[in-house]
Amino acid sequence: MTSSDRSQAVGEAKTYEPKTYEVRTYGCQMNVHDSERLSGLLEGAGYVRAPEGSDGDADVVVFNTCAVRENADNKLYGNLGRLAPMKTRRPGMQIAVGGCLAQKDRDTIVSRAPWVDVVFGTHNIGKLPVLLERARVQEEAQIEIAESLEAFPSTLPTRRESAYAAWVSISVGCNNTCTFCIVPALRGKEKDRRPGDILAEIEALVAEGVSEITLLGQNVNAYGSDIGDREAFSKLLRACGTIGGLERVRFTSPHPRDFTDDVIAAMAETPNVMPQLHMPLQSGSDTVLRAMRRSYRQERFLGIIEKVRAAIPHAAISTDIIVGFPGETEEDFEQTMHVVREARFAQAFTFQYSKRPGTPAAEMDGQIPKAVVQARYERLVALQEEISWSENKRQVGRTLEVMVAEGEGRKDDTTHRLSGRAPDNRLVHFTKPAEEVRPGDVVTVEITYAAPHHLLAEGPTTAVRRTRAGDAWEKRNAAGAAKPQGVLLGLPKIGVPAPLPPVAGGCTVA
C-alpha cells in the first residue's frame, strides 16, 4: 500500500459514522435507574445516543419493559411490530428487549417477534453490549436470563438523565408477597448493598456536581434485613447528612410494615433529608389489606402519618391506592376514602385494579365489575383533587427554596417562567429572573397561588444561588454540543434481510 493509499484509508476511517442507540423505558423508578445504566453501557461500547424524536430510527433500539402495568405485553408487541418494517429497510439494525417482562416471558418474545435480536432479564443488564455483538456475529437471537443478580445497577457505567440529581440503588428485590404484585418473582429476594459502597457512590456523584440523590429500593426502608441490622436505613440517612455538598436526600418506596420510629427521627434530625414521604396505602380496609397480604392495618398506617406530621410539620406525604381489588365491598372502599380524608395526602397515585398474570390476586374470587371500579375510582380522584388543592393553598405566602429543574414546566417558554421542586417535592412555577438561572441552581421565591398539582410564585425572585450542580449542568450541555467521534463496531451484513413475519395476534396498539 502506498503512502497516498494509507492516507486515503485513514481519511475514510475518520468519516465512519458511529452507531446510534435509543432506550425506551416503561414502568417504575427502578427501570428508569436501569435504563441510565443501559445507556452508559452502550456509550462505553462506542454507541452514541440517537437524537430526540428518532422514534426507532437508530442502529440499536432497547426496550426496558415492565410487567406490572396493565397491557404491558400488548404495548411491547405493538411497538415491536412498528419497528419490523423499519428493520427490514435498515440492514444491521438491532432490537433488544430487557426488564421485567423479558424476565417473565423469556422465549415467548422471540417466538412472537422473531426480528428481536437480544432478550435479557432484570439480573444481567450488564451483558447487553456483549449480547448485541454475539447476535451480530452469530446472526441469531441471543436470549440470556440470569436467575440471580450479577451486579448492582449502580455499579455499572451510567449515562444519567440529570446532571444535578441521581438515583442511588441501595437494594434490589423484595421479600414481601403482596398478592397483586409480580415484582418479587421477577426481581428476586431482597439483596442489600454494603453501606460503605452506597456512601462511596454518593460521594463520587457529589464530586461530579450532583446535589440531590434519591435512595432507591423495591422496599427501601427494609434495608438492613439482608445484613442483619434493623436500624441500617436510619443510619444510612444520617450518614448522608454528613456528606458535604449533598443538599437534598429523598427515598422511594418504603413499606408501612418496616417504617420505624428511628427512620422518622432520622428524617426530622438530618437537615438534607427532605420533608417528603411517599407511603403506599393500597387500601384503607383491613379486610382488603389482609387479602392483599399487606402486613399492616389502617390504624398502623394512620399512626405513622400522625408521627411523621408531629416530627416534620411541613412534610408532604403522597401515596399509592388500588381501587377495585377482588372482593372489595362498598364498605371497604369507604374505609379507603376515610383514610384519605384523615391522612390528607399532598398527592395520590390512584390505580384501578386489573389482573396481572402470575399473581395470586388474578385467580381470586370476587373480581369487581369494570363499571363499579370506574365509579369508585372517580369518587376517589375527586376527593383527592379537593384535598390536594386545599393542602397546596396552605403553601400560599410561604417562602421556599426551589431547585430549578429541567423539563418540568411544559408551558415555561410561553409563560416566561421557570420550574423546579420545593424541598417537599411540590412542583413550583416561578417568574423567570433577570439573571441567568440554570437547572440545579436554587432560587428563593414566595408562593402566590396554588393549583391542585402545582404552585405559582408570580412575584420577583428573592434570591438566586448558583450551585455546583448548575455548573455540572452547564458543563454537560457544553460537552453535548461537541460532535462525537466515529467508532468502528463491525460492519453490518450486506443486503436487505428477508421480509419479517407479522406480529402474532396482529396487535399494533401502543
TrEMBL record:
Entry annotated with the keyword tRNA processing: yes
Localization of this protein: Cytoplasm
PROSITE patterns: MTTASE_N, MTTASE_RADICAL, RADICAL_SAM, TRAM
Transmembrane segments: none
All copies of domain Radical SAM core, residue ranges: 160-391
Entry keyword Cell cycle: no
Co-factor requirement: [4Fe-4S] cluster
NCBIfam families in the cross-refs: miaB-methiolase, MiaB/RimO family radical SAM methylthiotransferase
Protein family (similarity comment): Belongs to the methylthiotransferase family. MiaB subfamily.
Quaternary structure, from the entry: Monomer.
UniProt name for this protein: tRNA-2-methylthio-N(6)-dimethylallyladenosine synthase
Source organism (scientific name): Streptomyces pyxinae
UniProt lineage: Bacteria, Bacillati, Actinomycetota, Actinomycetes, Kitasatosporales
